[in-house]
Amino acid sequence: MSDELGASAARTVMDAARRAYDQGFAAVAAVAAAGLALTAVLVALMLRPRRGGTG
């Protein structure tokens, strides 16, 4: 299919594909970072010693 495109059109398609990949990767990285931060907060809360407890 890329053989049918001219050089200019192929370059445009490749640039668009790279941009889409970069944006998708950034979005997934942001969601993963938020999930890790939430997990860290939950773990910190769960491991905190309880006040006035018996154990």
Architecture overview:
The chain is an all-alpha fold and about 55 residues long. It is rod-shaped, with a radius of gyration of 24 Å. Helix content is about 75%, strand content about 0%.
Task: Report the order of strands and helices.
Answer: H
Beta percentage is: under 5%
Q: Helical percent range?
A: over 70%
The number of helices is: 1
How many E-type strands? 0
Q: Kindly state the mean pLDDT as a whole number?
A: 91
Shape: rod-shaped
| CA-atom Rg in angstroms | 24 Å
Entry summary:
The chain is an all-alpha fold. It is built from one helix and no strands.
List keywords for this structure.
55 residues; mainly alpha; 1 helix; 75% helix; 0% strand
Summarize the SSE layout with pairings.
Elements: H1 7-47
